[in-house]
Design goal:
- By secondary structure, this protein is an alpha/beta fold.
- The chain has a single domain, classed as Spore Coat Polysaccharide Biosynthesis Protein SpsA, Chain A, CATH 3.90.550.10.
- It has nine helices and ten strands.
- Strands 3-2-1-4-7-6-8 form a seven-stranded mixed beta sheet, with helices on both faces. A three-stranded mixed beta sheet has the order 5-10-9.
Length: 298
């Protein structure tokens, strides 16, 4: 089995998500080559084995450049992770690689959009097809994997449709028809692909922080999950003061993959003492949070 190349993309302080992602992969024993698309060199990554940085000079929002990163730096097979993902399972990548060898495109289910939903009719206007919509699944574009030859056209069509349908410099919720931007375009294309050609992973096999309530069977094949995706606006590297809420599953894992001295990549990130205690969910911080919330203090 040929090891896939792993891709991710970042800009600005999202580099701290990338560092945690890479540390989680290495902790799981995944030594595959990693290509990082970035707006500027990430010093912490320089000189590390099997990590290659690609400087991207573009005014596009990085989330719209996922396909371009892979197309411009091709490998026989690819696996893409968003910068705000932490991999939890050592076997997950190897299972994905087996499906890639079978010619499958791998992705994850985020939710349900019914076959006759008005959004699907809109998507057909920009990605026409005569085939019947094969499933009600709405896929999350934070993880996907495939073969660069078999899925070249998909990646190219995704990139071209982003450029012609969206303003690629903008981000989520800045387009009324396609509020999820690149992800909506991703689903425009995938609704025209037969489900037999797709292998999907659904909750509970992956955990999305902002969408933990879901209709899917709650017992997955990964313990506790294949990966955690920090969906939503909250990102732990954006912490200011003492947050009112408790740290979530991603926060706790991210903290460990940033500050554990045994990590492969050492992050140049600073927190004050109280913030360190918040990530560790210390009892005194839980008490302080309750007091602040009761008194409605910021």
């Amino acid at each position: 089995m040929i090891a896939s190349t792993i891709y991710t993309i970042t800009k600005g302080n999202y580099k701290y998500g990338v560092i945690a992602l890479i540390n989680s992969l290495r902790f799981c024993g995944i030594e595959n080559e990693i290509i990082v698309g970035t707006d500027k060199e990430i010093i912490e990554l320089t000189g590390h084995k099997n990590i290659k940085q690609i400087i991207i000079d573009s005014d596009w929002n990085p989330t719209n450049l996922k396909g371009k990163l892979i197309l411009d730096n091709p490998a026989n097979s690819f696996i893409f992770f968003d910068a705000d993902i932490i991999v939890s399972s050592a076997k997950f990548v190897r299972i994905v690689e087996k499906y890639i060898e079978q010619g499958k495109f791998c992705t994850v289910i985020d939710g349900i959009v019914p076959h006759n939903d008005h959004r699907r009719h809109l998507w057909r206007t920009v990605s026409p097809s005569d085939i019947e919509i094969p499933s009600p699944w709405y896929y999350n574009a934070g993880f996907f994997a495939g073969n660069s030859t078999l899925h070249f056209d998909f990646l190219m069509n995704w990139l071209n449709m982003i450029e012609t349908t969206l303003d690629p410099t903008k981000f989520l919720f800045e387009n009324d028809d396609f509020p999820m931007a690149d992800q909506d375009i991703y689903n425009c294309l995938l609704q025209n692909v037969a489900t037999a050609d797709i292998v999907s992973f659904s909750p509970s096999d992956w955990l999305g922080i902002s969408t933990q309530l879901n209709p899917f069977f709650q017992i997955g094949n990964f313990r506790p999950n294949a990966f955690i995706h920090c969906t939503g606006e909250h990102k732990p590297w954006k912490i200011i003061g003492l947050p009112k809420q408790a740290p979530n599953e991603y926060d706790i894992k991210w903290y460990d993959f940033i500050f554990n001295p045994e990590n492969t990549i050492k992050a140049n990130f600073r927190l004050n003492k109280v913030q360190h205690q918040w990530f560790k969910n210390k009892i005194q911080i839980r008490i302080l949070r309750k007091i602040k919330n009761r008194l409605n203090l910021s």
